[in-house]
Structure formats: C-alpha cells, structure tokens
Design a protein that fits this description.
CATH architecture of the largest domain: 2-Layer Sandwich
Protein name: Helix-turn-helix domain-containing protein
Distance between the termini: 46 Å
Number of domains: 2
Oligomer: single chain
Strand order of the largest sheet: 3-2-1-4-5-6
Pfam families: DUF5753 (PF19054), HTH_31 (PF13560)
CATH topology of the largest domain: Endonuclease, Chain A
Mean pLDDT: 96
Largest sheet: 6 strands, mixed
Number of helices: 12
Helix content: 40-55%
Order of helices and strands: HHHHHHEHHEHHEEEEHH
Low-confidence stretches: none
CATH class of the largest domain: Alpha Beta
Organism: Glycomyces buryatensis
GO molecular function, one term: DNA binding
Radius of gyration: 21 Å
Length: 279
C-alpha cells in the first residue's frame, strides 16, 4: 500500500469487523481496552488514527495473534505516516484530503464530467483559470501545484486505469484564453493515446442519459478487502459513498454511458477536430 489513508481505512474496518465477530459491544471492548466507547467509535470510523500499541491490544482482545496480528500492526505503523497531500493541508480541506488519499491507492477510476475537465486531465493554465473562477485568487499557486501532483498516478510505474466519459460541453466551453484552451485540448488528446486511459465523448445528440444528475468518480483498489467507493462533489464539499449498493448503481450508470458515448477512436477524432478549430 502507498497511501496511509487506505491503511487507516483498512485498520478501522478490520478492528470493527473483528470486534463484531467476537460478539462484543463497543462499550465492552472499550472498557477492556481502557478507553471510552466514543474514542473506540472514532477509531472504528477513521476519525482518529489507531496507534500500533492500541491495535496490538485490540487484536489480543479479539483473539488475533501471530502473523495475522503482525500484518495489521505493520499497517498501523504505516497509517501514521504522512501522505504528500498533507503538505497542502492549508488549501486542501479534510474531506478532499481523504479523497486524494484514496485516489493515490486506486488502480481503477471511472468518471463522468458534464462541464469541466477532470482534475487529473487539467493543464496548469486550465486549472489556474478554474480556481480563479470558482474560488478567487487566494492560494492559487498551491492549489494548482496540488492538482498537478495528483496527476502523478497517470504515469507512475503501475499507472491507474481510467475510464472517463466527458460531456461534449467540456470540449466546447472555453476556459482561459484561446491558446490556453487549445493547449488543454491537445493535452487531452495526448492522454487519450496512453494505454491506461480511455476517454469517451458523450455527444449532445445522445440525448438524455443516466448521469444527468451530476459528475461522479468510482474508485477501485488493488486488494479486494478494500471495497470500491463512489466520490461525489459539489460547490462547497465532497462526499465519499462506501456502501456497496451505491457503487453498484453508479457502475451500472457508467456502463450505460460507455455504450451511448462515442467510442475511444471516434472521441479522439472529435477532440482533434475541435482542437484544430480553435484559432
């Protein structure tokens, strides 16, 4: 695992699962661990990070010993580390920091965007213009730097696999100057040629579709124990949906979008055509 966020998520899930497997209530377990039920609840809900000594005591209480225990204790040690995104804590709210920590570990992303270029695809100029339009000039350099740092997952040794469906409006709504927007579309075309990135354009001619309520990102992880999630955001904050039923419904919607959108080859032709039309 690369991400301490995913390590914390795994530890929290495992401690809760093991406690429930023993039949112990939260109050009973907390008393045995010499902590309050509230603190144990916050630990199981990832609101606080479980220190290795606490994880060791909890595992002993739940009857987990030997190699199984050591694996989880080692995870707990890693969970206390800092991710690169925590260097941007002044401009990155906690809810988005949690998402970026999940994104760092993901091996699969499926996304739909109706209006804006996905953050992972944005150029410096496009990102800068978006931040100024939506949040003003404060801390723009830091925000852009953080956004560009996120894009490392596209070209690392084991790059994330991405399926992106973009509404045609994303290609037509100019953000920044004409040269800057042309550079953004050129960059999108280059990304579309990478083997790990599939970009499909949803044309206006397709009519109504399952994702008309808004954008989303689906994240899948390398280990099946870490269940996939859905990320939604709006004007003021984002939300991670971790219940399996949410992921299933959004996954169905994404598959439908892939069918009605232009295929990757046709989409790349459209991207290049629109790029060439910008003076």
């Amino acid at each position: 695992m690369r991400s301490p966020t995913v390590k914390r998520r795994r530890i929290a899930q495992e401690l809760r699962r093991l406690r429930e497997k023993t039949g112990m209530t939260r109050a009973q377990a907390a008393k045995a661990l010499d902590m309050t039920p509230g603190n144990l609840g916050r630990l199981e809900n990832r609101e606080i990070t479980a220190r290795p000594v606490v994880v060791r005591a909890a595992l002993a209480l739940y009857g987990v010993t030997g190699e199984d225990a050591e694996v989880l204790i080692e995870l707990a040690r890693g969970a206390t580390e800092r991710g690169w995104w925590q260097n941007y804590s002044e401009i990155m709210p906690d809810w988005f920091s949690f998402y970026v920590g999940l994104e760092e570990e993901a091996v699969m992303l499926s996304t739909y965007e109706p209006e804006i270029m996905p953050g992972l695809f944005q150029t410096d100029d496009y990102a800068r213009a978006i931040f100024r339009l939506t949040a003003g000039d404060e801390n723009v350099d830091q925000k852009v730097a953080a956004r560009l740092h996120r894009q490392d997952i596209l070209r690392r040794d084991d790059p994330v696999e991405i399926s992106a469906v973009l509404n045609e409006a994303v290609l037509l709504r100019q953000v920044g100057s004409a040269p800057q927007f042309r550079a953004q579309l050129e960059h999108l075309g280059e990304l579309a040629e990478l083997p790990n990135i599939e970009i499909q354009i949803l044309p206006f001619a397709a009519g109504g579709h399952p994702a008309m309520t808004g954008p989303y990102v689906l994240l899948g992880f390398p280990d099946a124990v870490d269940e996939p999630v859905v990320y939604l955001d709006n004007f003021t904050r984002g939300q991670v949906l971790e219940e399996p039923e949410h992921f299933t419904e959004y996954q169905k919607a994404h598959m439908k979008l892939q069918v009605i959108a232009l295929n990757p080859e046709e989409s790349l032709k459209k991207i290049r055509k629109l790029t060439g039309s910008i003076g």
